[in-house]
TrEMBL record:
Entry keyword Aminoacyl-tRNA synthetase: no
Matching InterPro entries: Cyt_P450 (IPR001128), Cyt_P450_E_grp-I (IPR002401), Cyt_P450_sf (IPR036396), Cytochrome_P450_fung (IPR050364)
Cofactor or coenzyme needed: heme
Protein's UniProt name: Cytochrome P450, putative (Eurofung)
Pfam families: p450
Source species of the chain: Emericella nidulans (strain FGSC A4 / ATCC 38163 / CBS 112.46 / NRRL 194 / M139)
């Protein structure tokens, strides 16, 4: 008797069983949207604005639900209580990252953001913490930050038309000064021009055409490009379906070549700044920058050149992107809600007067301004979905099974726009934080999860190590902008006011990181006296602070 037909039939049945059962939600998992065989919920995760869909699902399935990603599982948390109980209090179980072939291709395992929890991560994290802990920021870095904010005001006075770039230059210059000892004095600085050109090269790829685009717009789009690589739904799921490695990449927009080009450009960029520090040390020794302190210890640490590239690079990325995105969100909001700006200006005038700019020492005396900063972080978070964590072992949450290696997604957008916590959450209203002036690090570490202000800095052991710098960056920038300027919506050629597009779907970029799209606005000094004060303070900053750093010519 020929057994071949029986074998083929058995194989077919087995294949059908795999196809029909893989992708199903296993018993014990948290609830979630219906699945399809083989795909699970992959077909339902949008390429654009996934955080909005995740929030919609949270309203249907609750603060803890599951998604099936083929054979894998993702757990979405949109409940502050569970963030505290799971990510914070069980941090030893939830500090890993999901395995990502794309991320590893780009970073080689040396990038602190996507690196797995382990000895190298702890070494790098400790180095960052030592240089950017609160005492170091208060003692040294705050002077650089204050001077940088003064220059940003001066830049708005001189070139108000470049309002989309001034916050980016501000945040980039601060982190460059602290990490490498090199300022970014203007958007046309030589190394920034090179950076823009590099970004244009990266963006001149099949999936996003930017040939002929001005470099300032290309810079904005590069940030979106890198974040798009990391957003759920934007790359083929090679970590879920290994056979996709063998499918011609051109069918997926040459995704692997794109990833390798991003890798090469990053190594070139980060290597350039590392070489600059090494060369300077040979001439004048250490200047006390972050990379100087790392190199001082590296004989003992034994970090490779590639690891040094990305140790500095991750700080450059994080320090440049998130703060500037929040500052732009604040400016964007003020074109719609001028009463907020006027109330904040009145508080500054009543507390410290009109003759001097706010300083960090004024933070505790300006509760409405402090609340305005928190509201900017809540209203349009730079990272709506915190970078995913991964479960290191099987666990149970509220009676639901969480399998080992599950991807854990903290839905910050959903918690920030929860009407039960923030009434009318789409409206920019600092009174959402009335009476709450404690800084974000204190609230993140508090045992009472109900007091946490926002999730813009992440959670657990993966919380942003530059949180103390970021808090001061934002307060100094936003408080000084409030003190100095009137902010109004833009007008068209006929003088008609252009209605601000505040919709997160159309007014903001797509990707893991989001930022306001280029929007028209008018930013004007509130008086000639304030303009003169800005120019005097800028001259003082040049003499007392900027002169201590390398400052490439334009």
């Amino acid at each position: 008797m020929n057994s071949l037909p029986l074998l083929l039939a058995a194989a077919s049945v087995g294949f059908l069983y795999v196809i029909l059962t893989k992708g199903r939600r296993e018993k014990g998992l948290p609830p979630g949207p219906p699945t399809l065989p083989f795909l699970g919920n992959l077909h339902q995760i949008p390429v654009k604005g996934s955080y909005l869909k995740f929030t919609e699902w949270a309203s249907q399935y609750g603060g803890l639900y599951s998604l099936k990603l083929g054979t894998g599982t993702a757990i979405v948390i949109t409940d502050p209580r569970l963030v505290k109980e799971v990510i914070d209090r069980k941090s030893s179980k939830y500090s890993n990252r999901p395995e990502s072939f794309v991320a590893h291709t780009i970073t080689g395992g040396s990038h602190l953001l996507v690196m797995q929890y382990g000895p190298l991560w702890r070494t790098m994290r400790k180095l960052v913490h030592q240089h950017f802990m609160e005492t170091a920021v208060e003692k040294s870095h705050i002077h650089v930050q204050n001077a940088g904010a003064v220059q940003m005001l001066r830049d708005f006075c001189v070139r108000p038309d470049l309002h989309m770039l001034h916050p980016k230059r501000y945040s980039n210059s601060i982190i460059m000064s602290l990490v490498y000892g090199v300022r970014t004095p203007s958007v046309h600085t030589a190394h920034m021009t090179q950076l823009y050109e590099m970004m244009v090269r990266i963006l001149s790829l099949p999936f996003l055409c930017t040939q002929g685009m001005p470099t300032d717009r290309a810079f904005v789009l590069f940030q979106e490009n890198w974040s798009k690589v990391m957003e759920p739904g934007n790359t083929p799921p090679v970590d879920i379906y290994s056979f996709l490695h063998y499918i011609p990449q051109k069918l997926f927009g040459n995704w692997l070549s794109r990833a390798k080009e991003v890798r090469d450009e990053m190594c070139q960029l980060y290597g350039q700044y590392l070489d600059l520090v090494v060369s300077r040390r040979k001439k004048i020794g250490s200047t006390g920058s972050f990379m100087d302190t790392v190199l001082d210890q590296n004989e003992k640490l034994g970090l490779t050149r590639h690891q040094l590239y990305f140790l500095g690079g991750v700080l450059m990325e994080g320090g440049s992107d998130t703060s500037s995105s929040i500052i732009l969100a604040f400016i964007h909001a003020m074109t719609k809600w001028p009463q907020v700006l006027k109330k904040a200006q009145a508080e500054i005038g009543n507390v410290i007067g009109e003759d001097r700019m706010p300083a960090w020492s004024d933070y505790g005396s300006l509760p409405y301004v402090a609340a305005t900063v928190k509201e900017a972080m809540r209203w349009r978070p730079a990272v709506p979905l915190a970078f995913p964590h991964a479960a290191a072992e099987d666990d149970w949450i509220d009676g639901h099974f969480i399998p080992k290696s599950s991807t854990i997604i903290v839905n910050g957008w959903g918690m920030h726009h929860n009407e039960a916590r923030f009434g009318n959450p789409s409206v920019f209203d600092p009174d959402h934080y009335k009476g709450q002036t404690a800084l974000a690090p204190e609230l993140a570490n508090a045992s009472d999860y109900t007091t946490r202000d926002h999730y813009g800095y992440g959670t657990g052991r993966r919380i942003c190590p530059g949180i103390h710098v970021a808090e001061r960056n934002l307060f100094l920038a936003i408080s000084k902008l409030i003190w100095a300027f009137s902010i109004e919506p833009g007008v068209d050629e006929s003088g008609k006011v252009i209605e601000p597009d505040l919709d997160p779907r159309t007014g903001y970029s797509e990707g893991f990181l989001v930022c306001a799209n280029d929007f028209p606005c008018r930013i004007m000094p509130r008086s000639e006296a304030k303009r003169e004060s800005i120019m005097r303070e800028y001259q003082r900053a040049q003499e007392e602070v900027f002169s201590r750093f390398e400052s490439p010519s334009s």
